[in-house]
Amino acid sequence: MRATPLALKHIHPARMFSVMPALAHNTTTPPTTTAPRHPRVLVTGQLGSGLVKELRSMYGRDNVVASDIRKASDDLMTSGPFVYADVMNYNMLERIVVDWRIDWIVHYSALLSAVAEKNPALALSVNMTGFQNVLELAKVHRLRIYSPSTIGAFGPSTPKNNTPDLTIMRPNTIYGITKLHMELLGEYYREKFSVDFRSARYPGILSADTPPGGGTTDYAVDIFHHAIRHGHYNCFLAKDTRLPMMYLNDCIRGTIDHLVHPTPLPQSVYNLAAVSFTPEELTKEIQKHLPHFTISYPDPAHPDFRQAIADSWPASLDDSHARRDFGWKEEFGLENMVKTMLDKIQAQVDAEKAAANHPDSPTKAAMAA
Ligand SMILES: NC(=O)c1ccc[n+]([C@@H]2O[C@H](COP(=O)([O-])OP(=O)(O)OC[C@H]3O[C@@H](n4cnc5c(N)ncnc54)[C@H](O)[C@@H]3O)[C@@H](O)[C@H]2O)c1
């Protein structure tokens, strides 16, 4: 996360609401004043956790309700409200919207590409029914809705380089199909019911703190952990597979700028890009810091199943409309992203070692016994 909250520059009067201030944690206390207030946001899923923290620093802890069907980290739990919410259950979601008087939903819950490919039926339910529920709630309760799409919504017939916002989209993965369904349905609700639907096609997202969620770009996170812990990485993609990527802090900043933009934007869905690289280029950048790091690639005769997915995606995106319409600009290129990832993961490893060597550590006690 950025050292200073992204926050205050974003608090434009147009984003304030003329109702009440924050509700107390886990209560449904009725309104006590008519002073302008911040929007109340429900976030589903947990790529969201950094976003939740930023939104809480902007709008107050109790105005941002995090949710998932999995337990939250201590960090997320203690920084504000967290509720169980199964996105496939409309009534459960509606109850949260009503109880917490939600204004905006940031909808992150989804099954990612590799996981979806292994369980298409579940991916259809979570990604399509889940989104339809959120969209219908947005219509009924007049909510703003932000739901990320992905480079996976493109397909093998899409132009591969500098792919524009509007182009051929014939995805051949279940993940891509569900995300294209999301884009089109969101646009339909925007046109037909004036739902304020916003979406950006994320590239692969890199974070030192969040474990990869089963996507095809996961190699670009795993590689750092293996480089530091083992000095070697078995990459599941070919060395020349070029994919668009982004550091998580940039993704959060771009998402918030898009989400809070005070007026409706000309498009519902935007490409969002930062940097594109291959496993080989990433390896060379890591080797500048860890010269002994080595990598191996799959036998081309026996590619991993994720290679076909990666080959169907663009190598780079044209995101000029996002830059024009809501001021998108990345801060992390390949060099500072690699340095930041290595520094953060090294700090995690050092902390683990220090904890293991502490006299009260169970590992230390077991070795002494
Ligand atoms: N991580 C990336 O590189 C990337 C790239 C492009 C787009 N995206 C999009 O960003 C969003 C978040 O991705 P992520 O990396 O955090 O994925 P993730 O797999 O880490 O998290 C998805 C979350 O959805 C939750 N979930 C699953 N089923 C659910 C249900 N029935 N009800 C409620 N929650 C449920 C999971 O518990 C999980 O916390 C997704 O919409 C994804 O498509 C991510």
In short:
By secondary structure, this protein is an alpha/beta fold.
Topology summary:
Elements (H helix, E strand, L loop, with lengths): L40 E4 L3 H12 L4 E5 L5 H5 L3 E3 L5 H10 L4 E4 L5 H6 L1 H22 L2 E3 L2 E2 L23 H20 L2 E7 L1 E3 L12 H11 L2 E3 L8 E5 H13 L8 E3 L3 E3 L1 H9 L6 E3 L8 H7 L8 H7 L7 H24 L4 H7 L1
Parallel strand pairs: 1-2, 1-4, 2-3, 4-5, 5-7, 6-7, 7-11, 8-10, 9-13
Antiparallel strand pairs: 10-12
Helix pairs in contact: 1-8, 3-5, 5-6, 7-9, 7-12
This protein binds nicotinamide-adenine-dinucleotide.
The site of nicotinamide-adenine-dinucleotide has 26 residues, from helix 5 and strand 8.
Walk me through what this model shows:
- Helix 2 links the parallel strand 2 and strand 3 (82-84).
- Helix 5 packs parallel to helix 6 (174-193) and helix 7 runs parallel beside helix 9 (279-287).
- The chain has helices at 48-59, 74-78, 90-99, 113-118, 120-141, 174-193, 219-229, 248-260, 279-287, 305-311, 320-326, 334-357, 362-368, and strands at residues 41-44, 64-68, 82-84, 104-107, 144-146, 149-150, 196-202, 204-206, 232-234, 243-247, 269-271, 275-277, 294-296.
- The chain is α/β, with parallel strands linked by helices.
- The protein contains 13 helices and 13 strands.
- Helix content is 41%, strand content 13%.
- Strands 1, 2, 3, 4, 5, 6, 7 and 11 form an eight-stranded parallel β-sheet that branches. A three-stranded mixed β-sheet has the order 8-10-12.
- Nicotinamide-adenine-dinucleotide binds next to helix 5 and strand 8.
